[in-house]
Design goal:
The protein contains seven helices and four strands. It has 207 residues and is mainly α. The radius of gyration is 25 Å and the shape is flat.
Length: 207
């Protein structure tokens, strides 16, 4: 009888543990579902912004893109391109340059919108040079330094300081001098966290 009681207690404790794990799993699944629904909503807003931009409704597109920026914990990489492109059409050239540059840094030459991005970046740079100094100072900008940007599945980005070379080359009168990049790893890469800190000016150089 004593063994039966102990077995019953053991079974009860085991069942309670299973029930607890199952409840925790349900909570985690609920959180995942909520995050997926939130992500889908943001993607829908971005698609609406792209459609408005393609229809030359740039102010309305800007509103949609701003909603994504306001709500997203991490900014989708492709939004860097679309927001930069739309900023060009709105005459916000510095803002356009900033976001288009970040898209190229993150996606490189293999990005889906690379060629178009380079084209708009060149246009924005040319236009920015023609804007009067007073207009530049008054221009309202939303810069990428204010946001964490998604670096993609690899979680790594080519260091914009050393351009992926892991060394910084300085040209001098007596030849070139070389020193290790104070930010990247030995292969010229930054983690996503390091990259976003660098954008905000918060990344400390390595000893």
């Amino acid at each position: 009888m004593y063994k039966i009681i102990l077995l019953f207690i053991a079974c009860s404790l085991s069942m309670a543990g299973i029930a607890q794990v199952t409840e925790e799993d349900k909570v985690q699944q609920l959180l995942r579902d909520q995050e997926q629904a939130r992500h889908a909503q943001l993607m829908m807003l971005m698609d609406q912004g792209i459609e408005l931009m393609d229809n030359e409704e740039y102010e309305q597109a800007n509103t949609k893109f701003r909603e994504v920026l306001k709500s997203a914990k991490v900014v989708p990489t492709d939004l860097c391109f679309f927001f930069g492109k739309n900023s060009f059409y709105m005459g916000k050239y510095r803002q356009s340059i900033d976001w288009l540059n970040k898209y190229i840094e993150l996606k490189g030459t293999k990005g889906q919108y690379y060629e178009e991005c380079v084209d708009y970046l060149n246009k924005s740079n040319e236009a920015f040079l023609t804007v009067r100094e007073e207009e530049r100072k008054e221009a309202h900008n939303i810069l990428t330094t204010n946001y964490d940007i998604d670096c993609g599945p690899s979680g790594k980005v080519v260091c914009p300081v050393c351009k992926g070379k892991a060394v910084i080359i300085t040209k001098g009168a007596f030849g070139d001098s070389y020193k290790s990049c104070p930010y990247s790893d030995d292969h010229g890469y930054l983690t996503c966290e390091e990259y976003n800190k660098l954008l905000r000016g918060e990344l400390e150089p390595k000893n």
